[in-house]
Amino acid sequence: MKKKLSATSLILVTILSSQSSIAATPIIEIRIRDHLFYPAEVVIPANTKVKLLLINEDPTPEEFESYVLNREKVIVGNGKAIIFVGPLDAGEYPFFGEFNMSTALGKIIAE
Ligand SMILES: [Cu+2]
Predict the structure, then answer these.
(1) How remote is the CA of residue 111 from the centroid of ligand 1, in Å?
(2) Which domains does the chain have, with CATH numbers?
(3) How far apart are CA 71 and CA 73, in angstroms?
(4) In 10 A of CB 63, how many CB atoms?
(5) Looking at beta carbons, which pairs linking 2-8 to residues 24 or more positions away fall under 8 Å?
(6) Residue 54 CB: number of other CB atoms within 10 A?
(7) Are 63 and 98 within 8 A, CB to CB?
(8) Distance 5 CA to ligand 1 centre (A)
(9) What are the phi and psi torsion angles at 10 (to 5°)?
(10) Can you say how many angstroms the Cα of residue 95 is from the centroid of all Cα atoms in its chain?
(11) Which end of the chain, C or N, has fewer beta carbons within 10 A?
């Protein structure tokens, strides 16, 4: 006869499996300096949710924006911001700094 999991062990399994998925989110650091992104090209694993940590080293604010990623977020001068992207299909996803569109250009490459 199939043994039923007790309520406690079921909860335990759920917590453990959620713990492992939270811990596995890769963090990618992108710095803004002199109205440029460093790195400007970010390679991430496809089909994986990642956390972008944007660090603005300029004293002026910048707005991280991407139409294809459907993301838009202001990073204050000398501030930080977090943006989650993905899971993405393999491909290229351009982003830009709306306050400095002629220089602040980058892309995420999911492979
Ligand atoms: Cu915008």
Answers:
(1) 27
(2) 25-110 (2.60.40.420)
(3) 7
(4) 16
(5) none
(6) 20
(7) yes
(8) 50
(9) -65, -45
(10) 12
(11) N
pTM of the model: 0.77
Q: What are phi and psi of 21, to 5 degrees?
A: -70, -35
Give residue 71 CA to ligand 1 midpoint distance, Å: 9
Protein residues with C-beta less than 5 angstroms from the ion ligand 1 = 65, 72, 98
CA gap 63, 102 in Å, rounded: 13
Q: Please write the tens of the pLDDT for every residue from 56-85.
A: 999 999 999 999 999 999 999 999 999 999
CA 101–ligand 1 middle distance (angstroms): 11
Q: How far is the CA of 94 from the centre of ligand 1 (A)?
A: 14
**56 CA → ligand 1 middle, Å:** 16
Structure tokens at 12: 């335990």
